[in-house]
Amino acid sequence: MEGIITCARYAYMPNNLGYCGPDENKNLIGYIANDEQDDGLKEILTDFQTLKPYLNFIARTNRIPDPFHKQVVEAYWIGNNLLESVSAKQYYKYLTDEFSLQKKIDRKSLQYVYGKLPMGAKPHHSFHVLNIFRRTGHLSINHTVETMDNCCISCGKVIKKMPDKLLVEYSPLGIVEGKLTQGEKKQKEILTEVDGQSMEAEINTGDLVTFHWNAVCEKITPLQAKNLSFYTNQAISLANLTL
Fold it and tell me: Does the model's pTM come out above 0.85?
């Protein structure tokens, strides 16, 4: 069940901010702080309207029975070879028949998204953030560069540990000559504690960590960092086709 707690670490902060998922942030942070997972946590994550359908889709396409399998969770949030099993036709069918994207964005934006599917689009969190221009959770409003940077999963190197924060170095999303890009590295403070409860899991100076909406998610390997960069840059390139 390791994938369930990992998924919770990524899903918690936007839930805490009221952007997506059920009103269960106190229970979520309790699970994370105690590093516990059970069917109750799975039930909470199942109620995330965007997250769970994507996990179901990736798992089904790869013939994996459990949508919370660790590799499925990693595929969606970070990226791995499970995404390469998804064809453009399968992704189109999912977005239309299951996700009902045509009911959530305008027709012009819908055609932009559909047009990118044969160009290599994958069901990765960054593609959804950067190419589906309206938040499809509780808030149906346009993203800004700042919200896209916060909503994308970022990877940073830990420069300094503080009591309830980490100082990390990462490449933020920005706009250069009208196009999205991952810019020059900068330092940023991210949370490791929310409402007095710790989200940190044995992280040390020099480690690579992921973060979402300015809160730490987990420590990752150099290979995972490489995969995250690959799929994020792929999503950026596709987004730039219609900016």
Answer: yes
